[in-house]
Protein 1
Amino acid sequence: MPTDFTVLTTSPGFATRGDHAEQLARAGAHLLRHAQDDAELPELVAGARYLVAGLVPVDARLLDAAPGLRGVLKHGVGLDSIDIRACSQRGLPVLNTPGANASAVAELALGAIFALWRNTVPGHLSVTSGGWDRRVGRELGGATLGILGFGQIGRALAGLARGIGMAVIAHDPWADLETARAMGVTLAEREAVLRGCDVLSVHVAGGPDTRGLIGVPEIAMMRPGTTILNFARGGIVDLDALHAALETGQIGRGRARRLRDRTPQTSRIRSFPIRACSSRRIPGPTRTSRCCAWARWSSTTS
């Protein structure tokens, strides 16, 4: 089948479900997959009309290598890996798929809360090592969930939490008061959320403005034993501060996202297998969310 243009993707999960690749082919597109070798990327992007970006940074240098590029599309939501200014200077639109993975992230966040409060990880480690540890857990009904960032993910998590009897307080300067009221969610200042929650879940956008958003001063405001979860970008929660708080017991449990490297900071968090839950970057990608992202991407670009 003849092709009219090239679509280069740096996201391993793009167009891998159902007949997505065939849909591209029928539209006249040749799908080219980047094999994560950065050295070859400028050569590959040189002939592309559209770039579907994953986690590989899209900067001015890469854009200069693509004179025929007509648009950059994020396979996901966060745009922190894309130089928006560089794209604007070249007249390139930047699109993403907001909300496509909201349910997936919210479900995983709630699952992490259950796992941490009911000591699922310690129980598993005990049984697999030949033990029979019977740690007493805590129930979530009646506890207070604090959410920083009341966007689509934050709202999805709030709905799940309300469904199991949790009180929910949230902070977001752009949140709609009537929407929050209809969901039974109380909007409050950030300090009030930090001081008033039993579980804090972070769902703000990544970038310079939010890096280190939760550090030593913020953790000091929280109740002793509070649980912190970061399902947003890495760096929003200061890992050194989290480690220190886990050591002293100021933070009872923690869940850190995107521990992809082996820096001293991430290694120290791994030293708390009983009270800290960490993983590689997995919150958003599910079969359903990828299909939803594809539907939004295809409708936007058609």
Protein 2
Amino acid sequence: TVFGLAYDATEREVHLLFSNCTGYIRNIVVPGKTSSQKPYAFVQFGHQQEAMAAMESRQGTTWDVGLPAVAIEVARRDIPVTFVPRQQEPAPVQWGPPQQHYEQHY
């Protein structure tokens, strides 16, 4: 798990950070629960040893001069195949009659 990302961090940026690491599979950026919380990312590797090597090599990386460094921790499990970050979840289905809008012409 990667913490300390910029508020506007993207999966592409995290991909660029880890894609040269042996065993890299994918990443998912999860937005913070509120607008004041920074996003974090899950990064998946083929084997635990590869994840550890990537963590050691990328620990303390900064995105821009003057910004805090990222903090990386080993996650307890792989990213589930069906995982969807909270702000990307589909909106709940609204049941009921469709809303109709009428225009008046004079």
Protein 3
Amino acid sequence: MAVRLWATSEDLGAMNPDLAWYMTIEGGFFYAVHASEPGYSLEQLKQLLRPVLSLRMTFLATIDAISPFTLPTTLFPRLRHAEFVNVSSAALLAPFTNNGAISSMQIADSNLPALDLSRYTNLSTLTLITVRCDASPIVLPTSLAPPRLAINMTSSNAHFASLGVARAYALNITTDSVDNCRALQRTSFEPSTTTPRCLCVNTTLVCPTTPTIPTPPTIALPTSGSASSLPSTAVASALSTGAIVGVVLGALVFLCLLISLALYYRRQHKTLKAHVWASNSNPSSPNEAYLEVRSPHQRVISLVASLPDPCQVFRDAFPDFTLPLEKEKTSKLATSRSMRLCYSNGAKLALFPIKVTASDKAAFIQRVQMLRDLPPHRHLVALLGVSVINFRTEFAVAVQFADRGSLAHALHHGPPVPAPLEMAHGIASGLAALHAQTVCFDGLTPHRVLVDKAFTCLLDTLHLLRTPHHHHNALVSFGSDNMAYMAPEVLRGEPTTVAADVYALGMLLGEIWTRTRPYTALLTGHGFVHCDMVLLAAARDHVRVPPFDMVSHAGVAAVVAMCTVDDVTARPTAEGVADVLVDLVRASEASSSRLSSSPHQL
């Protein structure tokens, strides 16, 4: 039987091999083989692909060559993330996206005549890399289960069909440049009377959720059938005549007041000037002294204008990264001593400020530039821009607001978290991204991990902006709730390394799974200060104190133990921890699937 190689797929999980997809020319039967293994039947293929969560698909044949053949749309019933390369038609995506039920999708190196995403109701992230879709606009879903859809466009040429008032979620589209963002705003997201304005925040187009438009109140006028009502023409005439008379009288009164004030001040000025001209010595009356003090008024204004602007150094450092927040009202965050909050065109922003007269503003600018150079990552807090705020007394860095606050608040003061292993994987993934850029977080605690509305964890990169004057001069601070996450070598006075970040990552993993703070027994019995003193003494004596009484999950307990060993060289990397957590998530979901599909024992 003649066959033709159609596509290849990889990243099917640790338990499944990479696949090569073939099609038969005569019968149109699809099957997949790996190397020299025999082909799978369609039923065998369904069983093989049932637990797959992530997929990367490369298409090698055009849509014209496979148009007579079809595949079921539920080949991957548990798929969450899919990457596609060399897509020639959106029809190819249906069998490999669980019929549109995936939450994250990436399309690369493709030329599509059309792309309809209206049935992708669970999509939260869409990435388009070198994609052309200029024949027709991309159709977005009208409503989504996630509250926000993030779209990243890299070297792509596409525009979007307008949804008007139908869109019920926030939309963020990141482009290559500010010009591309503004062009996309003009072509696809022009504001109208029924849609909120989409704002270009540097290279990102931010569209808030479409609000419900209130119905304007109606005023009931007397009807002609009422015995006491006047005819409509008579009522209108009476109202218009009274309004005209009132406006004219008000204008005349206001004009008379202005003329009276002008005449009064002119008379006073002439009187004071006559007193000064009549005097040939020092001022002999308060009036003369008052006039002499007022005389150099313009000279004082010129002197103030000639002083250097303390904000100019910040404007010069970020000419293309500035947000129009100078006149926006800001307020302090209740959970932070330094952070501020403001609203800009409906978007809620968190601000990290510094005084414009600070002595270390050059170091602050350098750290902001360092954060701007970091590659974007979904588990790192991204900078949106900078601005001068509070009457030009402070310079602030703006980031997107995290709805659920810090991880510490979400774990100990909020509802139960739905997916603890996925939250821990997000922290490990963000930490690995920093380590790949040779950046050490230095001080990872649950207070420096933020949680958004979808329980996605993001490392608070604003922590990296804190220059040394933000920290205490002492090596450690007792009772601060931070020492529990510090590696033993750091407590002994050694410099912080990426291995110390992995130690703190292990502590966070245990805290997320057990929903208890490390060393709970010590904290409950003796308090924070005593607990910190015990940990410092144990670190200097090379004695291990168990951080958690019991971790019910064997895999989680093993990862926590590996991350928190005293030997620095024996700890895994953050990337290795992230890979292990992915396998634990898949194993947990596979176990849950088996339990739900097995019959109940009577």
Protein 4
Amino acid sequence: MNLSMNDIENLLWSFQKHVPEDKVGHKTKVQLLKIALLQEVNLPSLKVTDGDPFSAKWHNLFEETTQKLKNIFSSLGATPEQIEAILTEYGKISHHNVWRRAS
């Protein structure tokens, strides 16, 4: 499963929340992030798919996607702490949607 536009919007929102504005221009960073994420729409989604979320294949896809996202955020000047906050919040949003769909 690929990153959806909803995934991208959630990541953009979380980035804006956790990375404060600076002299470089926050809107520019957000636009660069959106472009970078749109170029990576072939990344597997971090959401649980119909497959077993505990399988080795799913875990490897999750790790690869997470590392690529960390690299994108880092290249835009986010600190490791900010990156963890972004991905933690995104994970909560994604898993909340999975539970809502399952019920």
